[in-house]
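Exercise 7 asks you to align residues with tokens for two separate proteins.
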Amino acid sequence: MEMSLIINNLTKEFGKTRALDNISVEINNGEFIAILGPSGCGKTTLLRIIAGFLEPTNGVVKMDGRIYSDGEASLPIEDRNLGMVFQSFALWPHMNVREHIEFPLKSKRNKAVAEDIKKDLVNKAMESTGLKKLAYRLPGELSGGQRQRVALARAIVSKPDILLMDEPLSSLDAELKVNMRKEIQDIHRMTGTTIVYVTHDQSEALAMADRVIIMKDGKIEQIGTPEEIYEKPKTEFAAVFVSKCNIIKGEWKDDIFYLRNYDVTYKRCDVDRYFIEKNLYPIRPEGLEIIKFNSKVKGIQGTIINKQYNGREIHYTVQCKEDNYIVYTEANKCIELGEKVTLIKKEETIN
């Protein structure tokens, strides 16, 4: 029978502050789940309850039918078959790479494991993380990426049911982050371990996860695949936080959206019912096209007020009456600051 982590009606209160508000989700065996949200949204609190560092106020956490926490009793951390990777790496300066990776196998839970099996587990963990040649180096002799690999190897060596990761790449530089994403994905594929990965970085979540949980103010805003989260946001927060959507105001009549202050209409396409009820239309920055101002073209008129070159594309901020919109264009489409432009929705016919 496949194992799954079930979180049901989970609430956590710190005094009068409700950090988690009735969270429910089922995480399948072998799944890579990213919990995404801004600081203070409750994502790390949720991870710490799964790990056993915190007890919930109400609700149940269980793994394969075994109760981890239920608001009254909590299974000790050492009895949960978990691996954990922290933001700080948490390496001891006096222990070399091999000693760090061996450490989890010295726990009471692994006392009955034969020494030759332990040695084999350590070798496999070191091999899968590319650490064999660094076995006898101390943390002070390692780069940031190498220290992160040590933390990963230590977390997976005992073959945990779940690997919990709390913003593990936040202290690394941009290029190293991209490399480590691939390594974490490779480890996930090799081990088949269920991963619960906390991050505030949208690109990390979309790039690595099988499903993404978006959180805000202790609640789940949306759960879905990266494609669903990006292409079909279900709330204004999900649209802006992940897709960087422009939220355009207007009025819905049947399946046609009439823009406020402009003689322009959009068709519904895949817009969620949430936006229709609030008379809003979400458009991602790449969903708008900038053209030179032309009074004969129906569109949103505005002025370029900011321009950022990003290699393959340029990010423009366009001031349109009381609203500002973000538009991404190809790098060869150069428009100057202060220039008047018209924004049209891509795939719309210009009349």
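Second protein for Exercise 7:
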Amino acid sequence: MANLYHFPFCANSRFVRLILAEMGIEPLLIEERPWERRDEFLLINPAGTTPVLLEQSGMVVPNAGIIAEYLDETRGLALTGRRLLPEDPMGRVEVRRLLDWFLVKFDGEVTGYLVNEKISKRFMAAHEGGGPPDMNAIRAARTNVRYHLKYIGYLIARRRWLAGDALSYADLAAAAHLSCIDYLGDVPWEEDEMARNWYARVKSRPSFRAILADRVAGMAPAAHYADLDF
């Protein structure tokens, strides 16, 4: 059995959990709080970031994008028509482009701010960066999420799924990030019906069930968070 070191509200960790669930792989989930910088975890991943996949063989695969590529290379062919990274070069480029958009750009402009300020800081000691949320960072993230949501709506108006005709890593990455900020009630779904309907399709998949069950101690999710019909 593979082990997955993750933080439940690390969106990139959620992305990997969704991939594994879509592939029918049930890893042992090990919660890791990256800000604690445990020596044991740093020995596995010196960067100290989540997610990290530890294979039964002892092989360590860090970083969501690298894990996604690794899983496609080692398990993708067995999925036949359900492969999450297309076989054609143009399709693979588009999925990878959107992966960078959500795992890096969206995280840096939206998810990273909101999760850190509203969730992570609640559990951090002062010397780890804990304390009251920075409202300027929260306001910036709330502004930024609007154009990302419009971009998702733009893509879905022209395609069945974000990167083309089939569900791909792009959909799982985008949905993973949106799920974190949706928990906090910070997604303005009323501003783009196309994006909302696409997200409802993704979060209705069986692979999403475990993620929708995640909770932050002392912080209830938005009322619609686990409602498959919004």
